[in-house]
Amino acid sequence: MTTRKDFLPENIEFWIDNWQRKDLIGNIAASWLFSFPFERVNVIVNHSSVTIDDFPEEIRPKIKLWPNVMRHNLSRGPINRNINQAYVHTFLGEKKYCILAHDSYYARPGWAEKVINTPEYLFYSCPQGDGFHIQTLQGLKTFGWWDERYATMGWHEIDYLTRVLRQTHVNKVGKASIVDIHRIWPTQLSFVNQGHELHYNSVGLEEFIERFDRGFLPSIQQHKPDFKKVAYQWHHKKWLRSFEEHDGTLYNIQNGPVEAEVNWYPWLNLDTLQMDNSGY
Fold it and tell me: Which domain holds residue 126?
C-alpha cells in the first residue's frame, strides 16, 4: 500500500487558534502532543490574558505563542487571516503540512495513520467547518487562500469547503477528504446523508478528532445578530443563493461564486516559495 513517507514531525507545522480559554488550552495542547510527536505546538493567541503559564510545565518547551497584537480582546475575527498566515509561516518554513485546530478540539492517538495511509488527498477537514483541517502546499495551490473578505466569524468555512467540493467533485481537480456536520448540505448529492451532513471521501479522521461539549466550554462571546449579519451579507453577495436552502447549496457547488477569489499574498510565489517585495 502506498503511504505518506514524509508525514513526519519535522515536515509538519501544527497550529491552535485560541481565544480566552485559559482553563482549557493547556489540556488541549497536551492532547495533541500525546497523539503525535510534534516538534512544537504553535498557539495563535487572540486574547492577551493567555500566557505560557496556562500550559503544563512539562510541555512548555514545545509551546510557541504567537500573540495576535492587532486583534482587540473583544474581537471575534477574522479567523481566515489567522489560517492564511499560518499557511505562510508553514510553507515559507519549508514544511509540507499545515495542520490547524480550534482550541476546543482534541485528538486521540491514531489520527495520523489515517493521513499516512491516504496519500492521494491534498486537503482534509473534519468534523465540522474549520474546526480541524490539514492543508498541503499542493492543496493551497489547488484550492486557494481562505477568503479574508469574511470580516467576522461565520460562513467562512462553508465558503471554503464548497470551493474545495467544486474543484474536486465538479472540476475533477485534486482530491480532498471532508466531513462536515453542518446540516445544510443537499441530499441530492450522493455523499450527503439524510441528516444533511457531508461525508466526502471520509478516511475516518472524525473518529479521532473530537470537540468538547459546548456546555464545558468557556464562551467566546454571545453570537450577536450584527456579527452574523455582516458575515452573511458578504456570503450571500458572493454566492447568490442561501446555503440554508439545500438546492441553493447544490447550485453553488455546480456554478461557483459570483465574486472572483483573491490572491491575498501576491508577494509569495507558491511554486518557488520565493518572496517578491518589489511592490513595497
Answer: 9-257
